[in-house]
Amino acid sequence: MTRLAVRSPRDQVDPGVGVPEANRRRWTPRWATGLIVPFAVLAIWELGAVIGVISTRLIPPPSTIGATIYDLAASGDLLGHSVTTTWRVLAGFVLGATVATVLGAATGVSERFQALFDPTLQSLRNIPSIAWTPLFILWFGIFETSKVLMIALGVFFPVYLTFSGAIASVDRGLVEVGRVYGFGRTTLIRRILLPASLPTYWIGLRNGLGLGWMFVVAAEFLGASQGLGYLLVDGQQTGRPAVIISSIVMFALLGKITDRLLVSAGARLTGWQDGYIRETRS
Amino acid sequence: MIQLHQVSKRFDTGLLAVAAVDLRVEASEIVAVIGPSGCGKSTILRLIAGLEKPSSGSVDVAGHQVRGPDRSVGIVFQEPRLMPWLTVERNVSFGLDHDDQSGGLVAEAIGRVGLTGFADALPRQLSGGMAQRTAIARALVTKPPVLLLDEPFSSLDAFTRIDLQQHLLEVWGWYRPTMFLVTHDIDEALTLADRVIVLTGQPGSIQVEIDVDLARPRSRTDPGFHSFQDLAMTELSRSSQGRTDPAQVPGSPSRAPSS
Asked: Would you tell me how many other CB atoms lie within 10 Å of the CB of residue A151?
């Protein structure tokens, strides 16, 4: 049997270029590669503090921060602050996301509802949500209510905008399949619009949660006696940068953990998607 | 089974898509509509499906005026339009009221399109041909007396297309539904249809009807098939050149090939 082959110069890849690349990747997996820079920075930082190049009074070395986190944790303070802050974020998130989901679904499905509400919501969106803080404190006092409402407001907009947009952009072909089967509005929402917009909706939820963590800091800056945001202010006022950085580390950690939980819950619901969620996970 | 009487359709944009179309499709007949793109062939299908309302004239299916989509009419679109979050089986049973009570029907429809064993696959795991077969099974699951096909195979490769055309003929042999097929592929029309309607465009109206009296199964290499190809091609190119002078088609709008 005769085999014919045509090889254009472009197809000819020098094997010497590709192979070592693949080998290198196998020896150091990507997650490990990503750790090189942070660890290097930490090492230089620590070293700089030890030899006196960095002023430890303003920039405490990683070892001091680690010790501070340990002390805060051992006294139970860290847990208390973290629980308070997490509770505020989750309460605000649930509240904001629920209202956003209901309104987003309504404006996404009904043109009349959209004409009625969307312009108002779109213009309110342009106000930086933190600008509401003084008003919220006047209205709802300095305690939990105003804080949770601030966070809810921050969560609301990304979830609302993403969800109503996602529903409005569901493939018209799929919607028409529903029409062919004589689906009424509620059946259409339940069986086509909601499942089809779920992956995008989940991205909106993640953005909302991220903003929730941002807003809890703003809320706790203003008159809190408990919470990681309070710890930030306290660290500043008592001149303890290690406490501030410990608090920042906790924010990063808790933000990442809650995001992960949301992602894995979403992955189960949107596993049918063509590699979309999976690629945007990390 | 399907009857259009002086049907015109003008869209909100003012475009007259279909003008004064008279059309009759008998029960168990396979009719194909060909015509240049934008000639209103899909609009005619959507009028029969109840997805569009005629501006004037009447559309009847099974003796009743069409007022909207109906379970007695199955539709296969150009794209599979599967719900990406549902398995093949759940997609096929999508329009059924009680999924659990019709397991037999769903399995039968999946079997008829040759997808047995893929019931639990998700759409993203299917090839284009398999996805379109799933769409055909979804349309078949209620055994609708009328099956409308809107360029169902036009986005598939040539091999898959011929394969699915055979599947479609087998489906017809199963319970002999009335089939109305919109296509831009002359060979496809001549392979499948008892009658081919050539539309002329803007606004869409019937230029000529061709009775395809070729024995089945049909072979594309048969000399008789070639003469029908020539005839259809001639009519189609006349149709794409714009409105035909009605005098060119004297008497009956239906005519047999000259050979």
From this structure: 30
